[in-house]
């Protein structure tokens, strides 16, 4: 199906960017605080990684299923917005439950369950949020839209990491405790990031539900069965190559994101004990904020490059820039070297994210399957969630087999990214006329 008159609409794009900002605040809360809070329960990298990998297990199935059913939903509220409202409300409540559970001293299994409910809530509307962009922006403008949305998404990460770092500094000053997360837990400041995150998640979901008006749902003449849709992905080599490549580069990212505190503690202090992890928590938040700043620097030009210079080239440039600092990561020993490496990697990641988001929408346009954005972006999210599952469990196991050497995750992550690049290069229908690197 051809898109009809859905150009670049700033109001729609900024509304989606606001939703992306709020979701990123939620995911950043998870990335920034879950690992150190879990360290209060256990020092095992495998146990912590496995609990955090619940996100990947849930994300492997829920976006695929709900994305599929949102394609065929016919209601006066639209196809995507009902999922967005329900998911946002659930996610906001889940965030408050995480704080309440930790503050009440629930056992490890109880804390893990609250994290699991949060992951479920966030994934209730993951595919629908992703699908709204190609639903409302036509091909040729999606790179620019992706750049703006990616910019705000990673600004959400930066906001949360900055807020948490600031609160830790206040807590350290008040308590005299040198370990940031321990100081934060001793003050009322710990609740603030959770309350703010809940407000953003609920507020943005309601805003999109009441403000955005979805375009009229296209008629689906021959709807695929769930099995038929999954089968069609495997049969179409371009979709299969892209999904496989995305799985690899997200697994590389999650190796670092999940185990960053362990990596910092190992490199700077020689081991990832509970004390050392808590000692580097403030530094970790600072480095996450820095990474997100450089992601912002790469995101907007990444979207422009995607539209103007070519799909393959923009993805490969971003991937290589992201991989090179990880190769260097095996040799770094100082805080300054870590800072430089993550800063460079962030620029590459920003380009890669902005350039990869519109690919599925453009492929669906190419194959005249634009009615199916929900299900294909559901699978898109599954291939972003599978790496969380794999990185959490496999990464934790690798670290333990390497004698708790967290540094080993750097070169393995670089290898995964570089393996993904040929898959993108050999996609046959990625380019459009008028871009460099096209095949037609």
Automatic annotation (TrEMBL):
Keyword rRNA processing tagged: no
Query: What protein does this entry describe?
Result: Major facilitator superfamily permease 2
Q: List the keywords (alphabetical).
A: Membrane, Transmembrane, Transmembrane helix
Q: Which residues cross the membrane?
A: 50-70, 82-102, 108-127, 148-172, 192-212, 247-268, 283-306, 313-332, 338-364, 385-402, 408-427
One of its Pfam families is MFS_1
Sequence ranges assigned to domain Major facilitator superfamily (MFS) profile in this UniProt record: 1-216, 246-440
Single GO MF annotation: transmembrane transporter activity
Q: Does the keyword Transmembrane apply?
A: yes
């Amino acid at each position: 199906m051809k898109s009809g008159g859905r150009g670049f609409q700033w109001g729609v794009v900024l509304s989606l960017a606001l939703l992306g900002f709020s979701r990123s605040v939620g995911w950043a809360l998870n990335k920034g605080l879950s690992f150190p809070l879990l360290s209060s329960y256990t020092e095992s990298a495998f146990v912590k990684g496995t609990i955090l990998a619940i996100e990947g297990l849930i994300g492997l199935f829920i976006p695929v299923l709900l994305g599929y059913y949102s394609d065929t939903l016919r209601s006066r509220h639209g196809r995507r917005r009902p999922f967005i409202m329900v998911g946002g409300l659930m996610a906001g409540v889940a965030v408050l439950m995480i704080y309440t559970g930790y503050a009440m001293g629930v056992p490890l299994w109880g804390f893990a369950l609250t994290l699991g409910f949060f992951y479920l809530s966030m994934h209730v509307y993951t595919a629908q949020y992703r699908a709204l962009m190609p639903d409302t922006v036509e091909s040729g403008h999606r790179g620019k839209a992706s750049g703006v949305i990616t910019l705000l998404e990673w600004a959400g990460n930066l906001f949360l990491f900055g807020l948490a770092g600031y609160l830790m500094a206040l807590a350290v000053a008040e308590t005299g405790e040198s370990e940031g997360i321990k100081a934060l837990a001793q003050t009322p400041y710990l609740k603030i990031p959770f309350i703010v995150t809940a407000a953003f998640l609920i507020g943005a979901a309601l805003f999109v539900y009441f403000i955005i008006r979805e375009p009229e749902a296209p008629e689906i003449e021959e709807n695929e069965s769930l099995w038929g849709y999954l089968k069609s992905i495997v049969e179409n080599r371009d979709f299969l190559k892209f999904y496989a490549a995305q799985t690899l580069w997200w697994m590389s990212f999650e190796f670092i994101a999940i185990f960053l505190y362990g990596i910092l503690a190992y490199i700077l202090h020689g081991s990832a004990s509970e004390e050392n992890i808590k000692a580097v928590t403030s530094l970790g938040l600072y480095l996450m904020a820095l990474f997100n700043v450089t992601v912002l620097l790469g995101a907007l030009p990444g979207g422009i490059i995607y539209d103007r210079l070519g799909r393959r080239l923009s993805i490969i440039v971003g991937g290589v820039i992201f991989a090179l600092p990880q190769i260097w990561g095996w040799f770094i020993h100082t805080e300054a070297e870590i800072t430089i490496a993550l800063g460079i990697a962030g620029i590459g990641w920003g380009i890669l994210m902005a350039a990869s988001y519109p690919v599925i929408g453009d492929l669906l346009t190419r194959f005249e399957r634009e009615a199916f954005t929900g299900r294909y972006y559901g699978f898109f999210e599954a291939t972003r969630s599978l790496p969380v599952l794999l990185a959490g469990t496999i990464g934790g196991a690798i670290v333990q087999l390497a004698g708790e050497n967290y540094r080993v995750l750097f070169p393995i992550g670089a290898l995964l990214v570089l393996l993904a690049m040929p898959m993108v290069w050999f996609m046959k229908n990625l380019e459009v006329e008028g871009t460099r690197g096209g095949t037609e």
